Amino acid sequence: MKTEIINENNKNVVKEAVKFITQNELVAIPTETVYGLGGNGLSDEACKKIFEAKNRPSDNPLILHISEVSELDRLVEEVPTKVRRALEYYWPGPLTIILKKSDIIPHTVTCGGDTVAIRMPNKEITRRIIRQSKVPIAAPSANLSGRPSPTTALDVYEDMQGKIPLIVDGGACNVGIESTVLDSTCEPNLILRPGFYSKEDLEIYFGPVEYDKSILKEGEIPKSPGQKYKHYAPSGSMEVILGNRYRVRDFFNQRARELKDKKTALITFEDNGDLANSFYKFYSLGSRDNLLEMASLIFRILRQCDDDGIENILCEGVEEKNLGIGIMNRLKKSCGGNVKII
Ligand code: TXA
Ligand code: MG
Prior knowledge:
Layout: E1 4-7, H1 13-22, E2 27-29, E3 36-40, H2 44-54, E4 63-65, H3 81-90, E5 95-100, H4 107-110, E6 115-119, H5 124-133, E7 137-138, H6 153-160, E8 166-169, E9 180-183, E10 189-193, H7 199-206, E11 209-211, H8 213-216, E12 237-242, H9 245-258, E13 264-268, E14 281-284, H10 291-307, E15 312-316, H11 323-334, E16 339-341
Parallel strand pairs: 1-8, 2-8, 4-6, 5-9, 10-11, 12-15, 12-16, 13-14, 13-15
Antiparallel strand pairs: 2-3, 3-7, 4-7, 5-6, 9-10
Helix pairs in contact: 1-5
């Protein structure tokens, strides 16, 4: 199958995307977080194609994407008043909500469970595609399972070339890590996957919210199926270093000497830019004071490491608070738990 990339400004893009979605074919769609691998969320046939194209484990349920809060009603058993009010505030945006599912949701979306994950992305072109398709679009991140999530159309092309007919190119994703997943079917509501919205952000409208125990503590079993898999991993071996920035810098210098004959990449903030000469490759996370920038760059950099044939990756970590919790959650998975605190 030939995979076409069409820019979001092309006047035929919505029509083409809607055509494929309606035929139960897959279309990669841009969102503010990462690109999604989209298919008709009410069709078992389309959802099965999503699992096949990604090589996704069959017990990891999909997120349905909608274009208006009102589209929720036919997809779930009920929307509690508090949840509706909260969603009017956080949507469109990088929040996925778990609710009890209605009968029209195919088994393949929920993997047999009685809840469904739903989100309204903050990308106009994608909401237009959903609206005109007249169905929710099921979309996991558009990477092959296990690889870092795609944040550009070319990242998607790398993984999905020949497997899907269309990629809608909406430019680079500005959030860069996937949505916060909030389970609203339990009290207090539980964050199953940390992201752009922190616990403190969500508590404004949802009331008391907790992180699932596995997010801040090693060894706990995650409540969300997707969180238990190895994820986001580059091919090279990776180490994440966390601590006082000067001690971290000394450690980078020491590792530069130990690994000088290897294709080693350093991923750190721009204020360590002078270390670039000591490594095979240097990738900047931007300013230390701007975690939003780090989030938007991290998956692109990890994929670039693969493109550059990197054997060893040293990456500076960040303190686990606010957005730092979401970023560290991705980094810990990328390095298979190989985090050094110094
Ligand atoms: O930002 C995002 O959420 C992106 C973009 C494309 O919207 N999508 C995304 O999808 O990250 P995916 O499939 O890569 O991650 C979905 C996560 C998984 O961890 C999955 O286990 C969880 O949501 N999930 C889906 N349905 C669930 C459910 N009913 N209960 C608990 N967790 C669920
Ligand atoms: Mg994913």
